[in-house]
Specification:
255 residues; 2 domains; 11 helices; globular; binds flavin mononucleotide
Length: 255
């Protein structure tokens, strides 16, 4: 557990947060999920466009299909709660159409804004849920096939699932993964003016070693250059090469 000199309930919640993928076989009442989402919908939203929607997915058949898309992650199938956080441009499109306009052939800014909106709501929901004793994990693997996810969830055009979230009453207490060096990531006034005094490469070396130590302490095999090796493998070749064309098919044209 990390500690902070300044303390508050929210700081403690954030400092202790860890992704949890195993849950008690105990339901989460709808009122709890609604309270979590109502609080989350108070998140700031760019130009007040509120370009997000959320689907609470309970149907086991739909859950199974989403789990298949997410490379078979069992928690997507089994978690007491699965939420799909959607970027949703339909209401904005309606407003534009009322004024005789349209979203246009490309919509990079609106695509980004709606994805950011959905992410802020997602993280807010996560924290609200944690404050009530729930824990969980976000599911980006739902973007393995944006078009198939949209088909399964019957999303209209101009809507895509940015990420999902499993929530439940925790049945595990994973050890926290270390984070990169704070001093190397906070810059004063201009990029490069960090407080750490280490070069980017040096601090990465320190983190590679810390993450390797963490993985070994939980019995997981790892290379010495743990983080570099892991992300190097995940991001080359580029993951989800069909993403751009799939998003365009959903009405999010990032050209
Ligand atoms: C947008 C997003 C998508 C993620 N997708 C997945 C996922 O599909 N499966 C999974 O097990 N974890 C997923 N994670 C969890 C990350 O792997 C996790 O946050 C990261 O390894 C750091 O670990 P921690 O959350 O325990 O600190 C996702 C996290 C985020 C923010």
């Amino acid at each position: 557990m990390q500690t902070s000199t300044l303390d508050s309930e929210t700081i403690r919640l954030l400092q202790n947060r860890v992704s949890v993928r195993a849950y008690e076989d105990r339901p989460v009442a709808d009122e709890i999920v609604d309270a979590v989402l109502k609080a989350a919908f108070r998140a700031p939203t760019s130009s007040n466009i509120q370009a997000y929607s959320v689907i609470k997915v309970r149907d086991p058949d739909i859950r199974g299909k989403l789990a298949d898309i997410a490379a078979g992650q069992a928690h997507v199938r089994n978690a007491p709660v699965f939420l799909a956080f959607l970027a949703d441009l339909t209401r904005l499109e309606t407003a534009l159409e009322k004024a005789g306009h349209d979203l246009g052939p490309t919509n990079l800014e609106m695509g980004l804004v709606s994805s950011i909106d959905a992410s802020l709501v997602g993280m807010s929901a996560y924290l609200a849920a944690e404050s009530l004793g729930l824990q969980g994990v976000m599911i980006g693997a739902i973007r393995n096939d944006v078009v198939e996810t949209a088909r399964v969830l019957e999303l209209p055009k101009r809507v895509y699932c940015v990420f999902g979230m499993c929530l439940g009453w925790p049945a595990e207490a994973p050890k926290q993964k270390p984070r990169m060096d704070f001093g190397a990531m906070v810059h004063d006034d201009r990029y490069g003016a960090t407080r750490g005094g280490k070069s980017g490469e040096e601090s990465l070396g320190v983190y590679d070693a810390a993450l390797a130590e963490h993985y070994r302490s939980i019995g997981k095999e790892t290379a010495d250059e743990s983080w570099s090796n892991e992300v190097g493998g995940k991001f080359y070749p580029q993951p989800r090469p069909a993403l751009r064309s799939q998003l365009a098919e959903r009405g999010f044209d990032f050209e």
